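Aim 2, interim progress. The first record below pairs a target sequence with its structure tokens.
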Amino acid sequence: MGPNTLLMLVVAYLALTQNLSFFRAVAASLPAPAGPQEWRIMGSVAVALVVLLGLALAPLAWRRTLKPALVVFLVTAAVCSYFMDRFGTVIDRSMLVNVARTDRHEAGDLLQFSLFLHVALQGLLPALLVMRWPLRWEGAGTELLRRLMLVGALIVMLLGVFLPHQHELMIWGRIHRDVRVYVNPTFPLHAVKRYVQDILPKGPRLPPQPIATDAVRSTAVSSRPLLVVLVVGETTRAANFQLNGYGRETTPRLAKIPGLVNFPNVSACGTYTAESVPCMFSIDDRGVFSRGREEKQENLVDLLKRVGVKIGWLDNDSGCQNVCKRVGMVSLDATEDPLLCENGECRDGILLRDLPQQFPGVGAKLLVLHTKGSHGPAYYKRYPESARAFTPDCRDANVQRCTREELVNAYDNTIVYIDQVLSDLVAKLEAQQGRMDSVMIYVSDHGESLGENGTYLHGLPWKLAPEEQRQVPMVAWFSRGAPQALGLDLGCVGQAAALPRTHDDVFSTMLGLFSVRTRAYEVKEDLFGACRRPAMADGEGRAAGAEG
């Protein structure tokens, strides 16, 4: 056959078999039941998909490049369709960052036999046929003419379906521009290009740009040491948190802790760790945050270290996402402990094993505990038998093989274990109340989808992500002497906790707890700012006595 014929056969195959998520997204954007207008839109979009794939491949349809290009498209489409069709994943630049920064345990949970079988049958087998199929090539001039004729035919086909219905198609297209992220494999390949552009060196690496250069810390000479423990959760969604009204006892121990403050309405900065964690520690709010900008400037831990606060970071997840690269990190996920670790992976209780070594002797310290939390799809690996409160639970990383009940049970068990770890942490801090003041704040980095509307896991673009991925739990606890030492009214804190909060509030909250005065501090973004003594903040919503 001729090159044009092979090219269009592959295009038809990709459109019909590897773009099911795309057609589902289009169908979901249309009202039901479908009428004549909806069917016209669906048909026009299908033709547009074929034209797009054809135009993407046509410039590569030459003797030395056609077959390699078709192989790349086929294999890439097969890999992407597996995750898109099974988990509702979008393969964009953010997802590639998420994949690049995950650890080997999380990656291993996704590398199932079903993935390799899917790629072999739907990617490698067609690719092998393409490579072995003989083609009939003509002279360079003839081939150029045929390629131009193909491109012209594709454009005419697109205009033929677009022009008669341009008004309704333009309205639909403007409203539902996000469906383009499901076009497979052109959108993922475009994402790869952008990701590679991001990571390529762009000149010499410069020192990070300082932030809040006017920052100073007020300390009381006679005060006891202050320890603030910030527990960064992983993949735990607010909807399944008992303290937020969930119908199951997923946090029974936390519910019994006197004075524990729950924040029921908290939005994450992103839907995956590589974005949410850096954003949480950034001076920039979610609306202007970017990873590229963040890597060029200091963050919260840099600022606190500069003003004299000690910093500790214990990690049981996929690393600190560059947040702690200038202050150091202790990774515990490969620790050898027969009670807390197995198969080279540890449960989050490992973070508390040597906790007393992290207590400050003098001064103030921020200790970050980065947990593995509720990370899927192998939820059953995240909790011990003591936290297996809900059964039958899904014991398979391929969650589609489990029933809905088994999946939710396994996920809820991860939260039961989080409840155990946090309550044990509070108990260890309570035991030190005579020698230091302490504050514990827990907040998850993002949520999780458990099959709602066919979507699993997390990482969808913010505009497309459901509430389950964007809403996260948050709690705070103070040792007996901490409220007085920090000038806080706990009754007021409890009342204000019902207000909407976001990850953006972590930055100013930490500045407030450590009495850091700077124009970068925002009272309205301090979880406890409205409940602190008036001397701590002025009427403009800035720290009193800010320099500059």
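The second target in this work package is listed in the same format:
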Amino acid sequence: MADRTYIYTDPDALAGALFKRLDGHIRLALPLGLGKPVTLVNALTRLAAADPNLKLSIFTALTLQKPKAGSDIEKRFLEPATDRLFGRYPSLHYADMIAEKRLPDNIEVSEFFFQAGSWLGNSYAQRHYISANYTHARDVLIAQKPNLLVQLVPREEGKISLSCNTDISADLFDFRHQGKMDFIAVGELCDALPFMGGAAMLPENEFEMMLEPKEQIDLFSAVRRPVSAAQYAIGLHVTRLIADGGTLQIGIGGIGDAVAHTLMLRDKSALDDVWQTSPFALSGDETAPFKTGLYAISEMLVGGLLALFENGIIRREVDGVCIHAGFFVEARDMYERLRALDPAKRAKIAMMPVSFTNALYGQEEKKRTARVRARFVNSAMKVSLLGDAMSDAAETGAVVSGIGGQFNFFEQAFALEDGRAILTLPATRMSDGKTTSNIVWQLPVTSVPRHMRDIVITEYGTADLRGQTDEDVIKRMIAIADSRFQNDLVKEAKKAGKLSGNYQVPEAHRNNTPQALEKWLTPYRDELLPDFPLGTDFNEIERVLLPALKRLSQASSSKMELASLIWASVFAAAHPREEEAMERMGYEPKAQLLESGQARALRGALRQVAKNKFQS
């Protein structure tokens, strides 16, 4: 702890002072995600890039980057709205250098978790990725002997909040107090960050230096995507497994949004008709409103958890707190809602290190008492018939994201007396214009091993795998697979001797099709199950364009599909808002005789979407 905090307004002057004090070699502990002090990190990077005698080693995760448009159609959609959708968040120079293959030898960057898909195809990032469970990442960092910790922070009445990133930083400050570590702590002020309590709150003199830039950075906004019918169906299945008075963890994205929204509908007794009309088998009997309420323990504070808290569903208190979380990065409205909360209510959300949220070690008896009837809900990319899951890497071994805390929550689920780990995934995916199954016979990469298999949920139902024989596991997985792939899966399992030769898929599970799903949920989509249950930064006409752009993307790898779109642009009835949508994309509002093929395909996609919605 410093005697005083030295204030800087010039980031380059601060960067120079830090390199001088640390003898020209900075080993930087840089928070994941939102907590990166971009102005300061960019100044450090600039200085190191300009002087090969300096050395900058960065250990971090989740480097946030705005999406880069790859095609003309993407540019037309994204570029006019980039700042509104993602914030005026500046790019990190080290990320730009890695992407452009010009990172100098005296700068090294290692990450233990990627922004999903951001570094696929980048050799440097893939080679310098460190695979570690979230709870182990702290110890991997400590082994690097960091001599500098920097973080984006808000300040209030002489105190500093670690705000969005207590995940590892809170432990590092504790270790420094205990004399186990020695590093310089430097903050960059950002008033837009919510001032959070719990382990996040520190006296200002924990930071030896503070950058108060002339212009504070805008926070990165993680844009919410529309929730699909498949994601809503998954949410409806998950909701029936969440016990009143229990414990909840969910992740970011469409499935997390769907789970939160359907839990709120359940609390209003608004789902009876939806469940009664389900063409798929329903498991779980937790359908009543919440009398006691839930407690949330999650490495990530997501918009869905905040919505459940604001709506009084997350209200069960543990040590006076309803939510314990390790970090957050979300859509801009969540930051605003957190800042706007009454301080007494905001204090019910405590930011903690992941050594607390993701593990039972330390105060184990107390944690076990708190984390009753825990349901940890996470996503996977693929699951095998034997129940192991692929969540973080592609078939080639290339890292898509990282294991993060997923395995930590599986460990907790098995260690807790009544805990369950729920893996969610759509039954299929579209790749290169072809539909493939996400339930497969074998996986090339394993994130969760088969001996930790627990519950798997697709839009077609719930497979409870814990404690089951391999044959029963296979039968239950086939029952929630898309029916177009069930026969091939049965053949593979029989060929391997894992399924009896006379087994047939029961008729009750032979109707696992997108058509059955759409028929079930379409009547509820406008009122009960909207595209954006937690809100969106897309404007009205962009929301009209999204399904058409998705349709166009799906057709882009097939000449026949593209031809069908162009045909629709001539002969199908116009979309009610077609002219506005085309103008938003920079095309002529009305159809032109010499219109480009791309414009015709988009116009056709709009018309097909309108036709399908009308028919539904």
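The CA atoms of residues 167 and 354 lie 5 Å apart. This observation will shape the mutagenesis plan for the next reporting period.
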